[in-house]
From TrEMBL:
Residues 1-27 form the signal peptide. PANTHER family: PERIPLASMIC IMMUNOGENIC PROTEIN, SLR1258 PROTEIN. The keyword Signal applies. The keyword Signal applies. Pfam families: SIMPL (PF04402). Keywords: Signal. This is SIMPL domain-containing protein. One of its GO terms (biological process) is DNA damage response. It comes from the Bacteria.
Amino acid sequence: MSNRLVLTLAGTVLVGAAALLSAPASAQQNPVGQPSPRISVTGEGEVGVAPDMAILNLTVLREGETARAALSANSEAMKQVLAALKEAGVAERDLQTSGLSIQPRFAQPGKERNVEPKIIGYTVSNAVTVRVRKLGDAGAILDKAVSLGVNQGGGIVFLKDDLKPTLTEARKLAVADAVARAKTLAEAADIKLGKILSIEEQSIMPRPMPYGGPMRMAASDAAVPLASGENTYRTQVNVVFEIAP
């Protein structure tokens, strides 16, 4: 009985060893759960486009002996500015109050110490953001607004109203750039690219970049000459490729 048991166990060990020797080589090289070899690259796409819209930041600043007097003077001036903007063709939806501030003005401190600061008046500022969709009108609108009471601010940004076609083109260029980079790296490493495993776009919204090329006049006949230039929009994608066996 004991001899038969020993022989049976020995046979089992031999069968197990034979099974290990006959296991496929791929199973020994790529254990279960281990990711396949891969290569990751980042591609960039850049597209330059002329803007077709301007955003103006305009502020009316008024002073008065009291807060009410300063606010009333400011409100009257801002009403005239808004009316002129609408008359110039700016739609109601393109006008938005972006800030209102009421601040006291203090007398200059003298030589005396431990003296309470004295209020001698108030300053009221009212800021409005204006979207000018007819780029050629931006200079004339800015000139008109200043003549009617705008006396602070004046910031201007040129943008593209519909960015979808521009960003679509930038994404295509970014993916093409990633594929080209991956091919270069694979050739240098003497490996073959497999299928694309994932494509991920950067979540940051592309912003217009200054362009140093020739400038286009946005309002050549206006009292305030403006140059809109060209904006460059960039995007990035991360692409992961499988390495072919």
